[in-house]
Task: inverse folding
């Protein structure tokens, strides 16, 4: 896609006016929600959006409501000018870059909460997270009135949460998951990788290597509990200071699998671990 002139809007009214014009012309719209600090993984989502719709909108908004007070909201990587340049290079049509007051007007008091798929893993480790995610994504879907929205499978539990919200609230949009984009050595691309120093970046590849080996062991008939423990041991041995979880779950509702072999179940191994001050997550299909 040739570099385009990227239009940037900052209000919901501007966003809706542009989307309405495109739809009036018979041009379907894809939304790619992001928190900025864009990398090749985000751009691959834009390109998938271009394959699914005539027009693409990328939102860039660091959502304060999904960060706990002790988390990295203030230090989260930001760079709107660079984000805009990258989006233009891949031919994105529009960047929606609201400020916090546009997204959350004074007196804002509504939160979208759900149970089940949101409760384990990230939901247990970060209790505020999915309420913030579900709320902001619901707003973005309603603000943009997109026909399709693209999310990366790197945040696999988040993808399942969003699918559930859209189903339960009858939001008229198709949710599409895109495969995790990875560096040449297998590390999942993430804005938080920018926090890693050179030594940590070299060690980080142990994370995908460990869960890949675990997934292969279980797919070959091995026990879930053995594979999880082996993966945790390998991650800690590589220099990670803490593993929040490494668990094999059913791919759809994220119910627990194991402790023995999974048989014909479709599983997903999900992991979150700390390397220095950086928390990395990843996941892979099992079976």
Result:
């Amino acid at each position: 896609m040739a570099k385009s002139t990227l239009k940037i809007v900052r209000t919901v009214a501007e966003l809706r006016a542009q989307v309405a014009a495109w739809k009036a012309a018979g041009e379907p719209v894809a939304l790619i929600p992001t928190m900025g600090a864009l990398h090749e993984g985000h751009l691959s989502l834009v390109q998938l959006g271009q394959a699914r719709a005539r027009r693409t909108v990328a939102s860039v908004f660091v959502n304060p409501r999904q960060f706990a007070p002790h988390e990295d909201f203030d230090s989260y990587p930001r760079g709107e000018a660079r984000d805009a340049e990258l989006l233009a290079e891949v031919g994105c049509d529009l960047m929606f870059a609201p400020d916090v007051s546009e997204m959350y007007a004074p007196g804002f008091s509504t939160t979208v909460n759900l149970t089940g798929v949101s409760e384990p893993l990230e939901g247990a480790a970060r209790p505020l997270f999915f309420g913030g995610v579900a709320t902001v994504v619901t707003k973005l879907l309603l603000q943009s009135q997109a026909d399709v929205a693209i999310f990366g499978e790197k945040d696999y539990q988040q993808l399942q949460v969003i699918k559930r919200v859209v189903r339960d609230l009858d939001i008229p949009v198709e949710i599409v998951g895109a495969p995790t984009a990875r560096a040449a050595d297998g590390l999942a691309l993430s804005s938080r990788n920018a926090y890693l120093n050179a030594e940590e970046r070299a060690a980080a590849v142990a994370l995908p290597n460990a869960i890949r080996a675990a997934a292969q062991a279980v797919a070959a008939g091995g026990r879930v509990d053995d594979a999880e423990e082996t993966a945790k041991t390998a991650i800690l041995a590589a220099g990670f200071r803490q593993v929040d979880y490494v668990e094999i779950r059913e791919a759809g509702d994220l119910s627990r699998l194991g402790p023995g072999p999974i048989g014909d179940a479709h599983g997903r191994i999900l992991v979150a671990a700390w390397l220095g001050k950086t928390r990395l997550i990843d996941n892979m299909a099992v079976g």
Observations:
- The chain has ten helices and nine strands.
- The CA atoms of residues 197 and 232 lie 22 Å apart.
- The chain has a mean pLDDT of 96.
- The longest helix spans residues 129-144.
